[in-house]
Amino acid sequence: MRFIKDRPVLFWGSLTTLVEAVIGLLLVFGLDLEPEQVGGIMLFLAALGTMFVFIMQGLVTPTNNPKDDAGNMLTPATIGNDEADLPPILTSDTS
Predict the structure, then answer these.
(1) Where are the beta strands (DSSP E) in the chain?
(2) Can you tell me the distance from the alpha carbon of 17 to that of 49, in angstroms, rounded to the nearest whole number?
(3) Residue 92: phi, psi to the nearest 5?
(4) Predicted TM-score (pTM) of this structure
(5) How far is CA 24 from CA 11, 48, 51, 75, in A?
(6) SS3 at position 7
(7) What is the 8-class DSSP label of residue 92?
(8) Long-range pairs for 61-67 at CB < 8 Å and ≥24 separation?
(9) What is the distance between the alpha carbons of residues 35 and 2, in angstroms, rounded to a whole number?
(10) What does the pLDDT look like over 28-58, one tens digit per residue?
């Protein structure tokens, strides 16, 4: 369940795509729906997925202006000279 909290946009986008794929498989294996019904269901799922992306995008930390839960700016900090080839980590800047 941590995956849902850490990557909500990816989770909900994947979930709506999975539901569309399952509906497609059910149609291939004999689910009796009219083409208009299939189109309506797929249109609804696409709109639902887009809505989830817009809602969930507001819940993730932006990479251009990251802040911690308390609202403090996160700034890059170096790790150390012996590990200089590693990427910087983000630390809270409370000064």
Answers:
(1) 74-77, 89-92
(2) 8
(3) -75, 130
(4) 0.53
(5) 20, 17, 21, 46
(6) coil
(7) E
(8) 66/90
(9) 38
(10) 898 888 889 989 988 998 888 888 878 877 7
